[in-house]
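Entry 14. Ran structure prediction on the chain below.
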Amino acid sequence: MPTYRRSVVPVRPGAGTLPLVAIVGRPNVGKSTLFNRLTGSRRSIVGDEPGITRDRIYGEYEWAGRQFRLVDTGGIVPDDPELIPTEIHNQAQVALGEADGLVLVVDARTELASPDYDLVRMLLRASKPVFLAVNKVEGEAMAMAAENFRRLGIKNVYPISAEHGLGVGDLLDAIAEAIPERAGETEEAPEEEAKPETPGLHRTHGEFEQHETSVAIIGRPNVGKSTLLNALTGTSRAIVSPIAGTTRDAVDEVVEFEGATLRFVDTAGIRRKGKTHLMAEKLSVVMARRHLEAADVALLVIDATEGVTASDATIGGYAHESGRSVIIVVNKWDAVTTGRTDGRPPADREIFEKQLRRVLKYLDYAPVIFLSALERKGMGRVLREVKAVAAERRKRITTGQMNRFLDQIDFQRAPVPMAKRVRIFYMTQAAVAPPTFVLFTDRDVKLHFAFERFLENQIREAFGFKGTPIWFKVKARNAEKNE
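Output, structure tokens:
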């Protein structure tokens, strides 16, 4: 059985012993700006539109010689009946329960309103140190306006500018003083874990000792990516709703499964540029592409009720072209096989997969899994496939094996015009993740598409490489002599 643990990006040994500080507040007061400044990252999307952050986003910061965990929550509007604000409130409540200290962020340029008092009452009931950060204070006039917020009844008031870093040091001093050290917090990490650089962060070429596998959950909006994350990790980590575009920031969770560490990252739904209008939507799509390119494996989620679309093919193309390993997940399969209300007969898995392979023909190496994330069925197979595909991605074939393999291939069967054929003297695997082969040939030309596909199919038949693209590089054996 898999075991689950919440973690930080990037994870640091001993992170579970660190004190946790939660940043809370109403929408659009600057919580994510403060989070990004303290963590030195752009993990949380920042913009002028209210309600950009929805899920809990974790990070770390260091102050006064101590390490702290930090969680950014969505804007809280107490007693809002709407679905997404209610779910944001629930996510914030989880963060409050975990936290050792609470930072309430307010906007110095706004007037106090009843939701501010409701929020303060909720925080004070938690019986934890509460710090009031009056944000957007720039200049003496705004500093005077910040004093009005003492009416909220919070003793620790700190005027700050999260954007410019003004007054943040005083706030952090107070937090460090008020939150006692946890047992084991100051223990030193093992020497091998304290390296300044982690080669595993580079996901294109090269060999490295990798301690975890990063898995990006990608797809169109509202295909069930967040539901899948929650099912895989056994949590309610990501907000789930029928409203397309609910997820904006990437949400991650770590699963320990059969000795492997798998980090699942739920990304925002990727849609065409012309379909994105709000700034937050545009940024979330950009961030989704970045998280995909930093991953090892991509779970391409397809909605069975809508079939395979051109957008699915485009998103799958992003993963293929960037060299990610791919597993295709057909979600909501139960909705098209049982209890259909549209009068149509139940879907046939074999027919559906044939249609899928036709549209996604460049992903013929990717395994396909049919499941219901809502019912949490099929999660074990997903975890096993991720582990297997990650291992195939890092597989290395020796040069001797490759040359013996070459001797057994009948290249006359390759459907390539004679003028486009090349003679391969020998080949070697130059890199893993994805597996990359260098072909030493009689001519320095680009391989014909049909010849490349023939060679790739022969390699897969002999050595596997399930779920991962294979790259080729051509080098003429006599190129150096001719220069």
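The chain has 14 helices and 16 strands. Will compare against last week's run tomorrow.
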